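Please predict the structure of the following assembly.
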Amino acid sequence: MNKTIQVSSRGRDDWVDISREVQAAVSESGLDEGVVTVYVPHTTCGIAIQENADPPLKVDITRALDALCPWEGNYGHGEDNAAAHMKAVLTGPSVQIPFEKGRLMLGTWQGINLCEFDGPRNRRVIIHVSP
Amino acid sequence: MNKTIQVSSRGRDDWVDISREVQAAVSESGLDEGVVTVYVPHTTCGIAIQENADPPLKVDITRALDALCPWEGNYGHGEDNAAAHMKAVLTGPSVQIPFEKGRLMLGTWQGINLCEFDGPRNRRVIIHVSP
Amino acid sequence: MNKTIQVSSRGRDDWVDISREVQAAVSESGLDEGVVTVYVPHTTCGIAIQENADPPLKVDITRALDALCPWEGNYGHGEDNAAAHMKAVLTGPSVQIPFEKGRLMLGTWQGINLCEFDGPRNRRVIIHVSP
């Protein structure tokens, strides 16, 4: 089953927790056990599973990614967002999470996040549920 | 369905667009909907989904990865390609892309690339199509 | 089929080869062909497929990740392990490996590793085998 959801990001860099939407897709599938693929059809955002309990941590990670991929630089790309593409390479466009008894097997501290690197934008996330 | 294709890279660092080959494997499977896994059985190249429309962007990303993982360094690895292994850790060996009506759900700007970090070489890419 | 295994890491940073355990899960599934998802339900460790033949290479990669994500820093996170979370973002929590005739299609030099960034700890790894 494929389901596409819409996600709105705020600010150039943002993390949007989509765990609830992914769980909803798993529940809608009616499957008891399987694996879900969460995929962004974009090149300047990514998907990361990370702790959402402590908000300063997202700031730390955003800053760390900025340090690795500075926004300003001697880039050849025709737009000014080469750093956002680079961050998307580092985080990747997809994750897979197993589920059991219809529930995502996320750890206690894990949340599924759309990582925006060139926002604010409206993004699509494709959720594929497999047995 | 598993299908293995051969890809030749040019230069030490190269990005080879394999989107067409991945779509061909999906079409050959005859499946309408599912998810495809693209996997490299190598430790010094990776798979990245990125924009292929603007060639300077690949140069930007190659340079950014070089800045993060310098080729020359005080490495203990028995070969001179420790940086290529490190780049492969950052990009990862696999991606998954959902498909629908027999078509990959790639975004407008997305291409599937084998990222060569220790070429030129002949590489294998394994494509697995799941319902 | 979902199977959860326990893995113990040694030291703050460690790589634990779990290739044998993943192959065992594939064999137990009785499936001939498919794809296996290897997933950690944690936010300060990751999964990486890399060469295990040359032990100094793991040291090189550990040092390179430390250079990118320094342990000491001006972090806001309530615990002292922000760097471990950042490393987990870079490596990612999951990989997928196709298998054929009941055997993982790993390359000659590839091993599946749990990458510990905040150990020593006991970790869980979820292995999902799909047709």
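Chain B has a mean pLDDT of 97. Chain B touches chain C at residues 1-2, 37, 39-43, 68-69, 75-79, 82, 85-86, 88-90, 92-94, 96, 124, 126, 128, 130-131 (CB under 8 Å).
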